[in-house]
Amino acid sequence: MILVTGGVGYIGAHICVELLSDGNDVLILDNLCNSSRITVERITVLAGARPSFIEGDVRNRPLLERIFTDYPIDAVVHCAGLKAVGESVREPLRYFETNVSGSVNLCQAMADAGVHTLLFSSSATVYGECVQMPIDESCVLGQPTNPYGHSKLMAENVMGSIARSDPRWSVGLLRYFNPIGAHPSGLLGEAPTTAPNNLLPYLLQVATGQQKELSIFGDDYPTPDGTGVRDYIHVMDLAGGHLKALDYLQRNSGVHTWNLGTGRGYSVLEMVNAFERVSGMNIPLKTTPRRNGDIAQCWADPGKAARELSWCATRNLDEMLRDAWRWQCQNPHGYEVDNLYPNTSEPEDVTMIRLVRSADALFRPNTTRDANKTIT
Ligand SMILES: NC(=O)c1ccc[n+]([C@@H]2O[C@H](COP(=O)([O-])OP(=O)(O)OC[C@H]3O[C@@H](n4cnc5c(N)ncnc54)[C@H](O)[C@@H]3O)[C@@H](O)[C@H]2O)c1
């Protein structure tokens, strides 16, 4: 059985579907601080198998001890964490407590239970303002530009140290570049609970009229069109990388680091143009000064993952944007199913099955600016 912390969050949910579909038993631990219990039902429908679910906190050591006693856990995928950069600047202690202390707590409980296989959701933010492009895993780790980045790097260092001190550990540090997109059914996706910080969730909210316009933070970067360049990766490709990495960790001890990206960067303007083409929507833009801490460009060298894991991203930018737009059209209010079907009195799993069956009918690209209309 695989324990997935943060398994009902955006990335964790996609990983759970892939793990269950591959025949694994899955236990999710999530405190639901940035997610919804409904996601468990959607994972179940998509995977055709139900994960076990415990609502709880990775900082709760007695709870973790009980979990490792009660369930036959072989490996842990550790996605639970806080991820909003701006919030981390305002509330650094909260970020260190969850992302660092929570990780230490989890590692201690794993060590006590004799479970030594751990895959960690890290981030390209640990590279800081790396000047070398593309970025490979041997790049000297820079100074992350915010407390969120520091917390990910500190957690990486904790896990790397324990793996180097005890040969029973197999630790994988997955440095995600920019995960976007959604499950192609439109049932799983990113559901920001506050105003989004990242480009695509914000762009989706502009497309549905929830935000007025998209701010481009700086058009004078040394990039081909002056706007920032990032390596966007489909969340399904990202989830697939976890299965490959877990398989590798089962056969190899020590600490291993892999970039999960496509190796191709897109500028903000390229993203907007591609989204307008895929969705048929018009995105009002406003150019504003650069944001502190933003870097001009960042894309991965994913060669190490290709060589060691036989993994590479296969979905292109249009698929990322189409799947994200489908998710947004079907779920304009995130996981609040009641808002989608206000009069329904059927059980949640029946609603989910109906949602899956009607997924294609619900998705009508190039139609209306009002996403609500597509689901009435
Ligand atoms: N989304 C990205 O762009 C991105 C990029 C790089 C790395 N990451 C990392 O990937 C991981 C998952 O990111 P995501 O985008 O799915 O975020 P998310 O917020 O959607 O998912 C995180 C999940 O962890 C849960 N959680 C938070 N604190 C917890 C705690 N103390 N105990 C138990 N559960 C807790 C939340 O409820 C949520 O369900 C995070 O660790 C994040 O730092 C994300």
Task: Describe what this molecule looks like in 3D.
It is a single chain. The chain is α/β, with parallel strands linked by helices and 376 residues long. It has a domain of 232 residues: NAD(P)-binding Rossmann-like Domain (Rossmann fold), CATH 3.40.50. Helices cover 41% and strands 15% of the residues. The strands form four sheets. Strands 3-2-1-4-5-6-11 form a seven-stranded parallel sheet, with helices on both faces. It has a three-stranded mixed sheet with strand order 12-9-14. Helix 1 runs parallel beside helix 2, helix 3 runs parallel beside helix 5 and helix 5 runs parallel beside helix 6. The longest helix has 22 residues. The protein is globular. Bound molecules: nicotinamide-adenine-dinucleotide (NAD).
Concise synopsis of the structure shown:
The protein has helices spanning 10-21, 38-47, 61-70, 85-90, 92-113, 147-165, 199-207, 235-251, 268-279, 303-309, 317-330, 337-340, 348-357, 359-362, and strands at residues 2-5, 26-30, 52-55, 75-78, 117-123, 170-176, 178-180, 214-217, 229-230, 232-234, 254-260, 266-267, 285-288, 297-298.
> Beta-strand percentage?
15-25%
Using only CA atoms, what is the Rg?
20 Å
Largest sheet data:
7 strands, parallel
What is the CATH architecture assignment of the domain at 2-181 and 233-265 and 297-315?
3-Layer(aba) Sandwich
Which ligands accompany this protein? nicotinamide-adenine-dinucleotide
Residue-averaged pLDDT: 90
**CATH class group of the domain at 2-181 and 233-265 and 297-315:** Alpha Beta
CATH superfamily of the domain at 2-181 and 233-265 and 297-315: NAD(P)-binding Rossmann-like Domain
- Report the principal-axis shape: globular
Query: How far is the N terminus from the C terminus?
Result: 40 Å
Low-confidence stretches: 338-344, 358-376
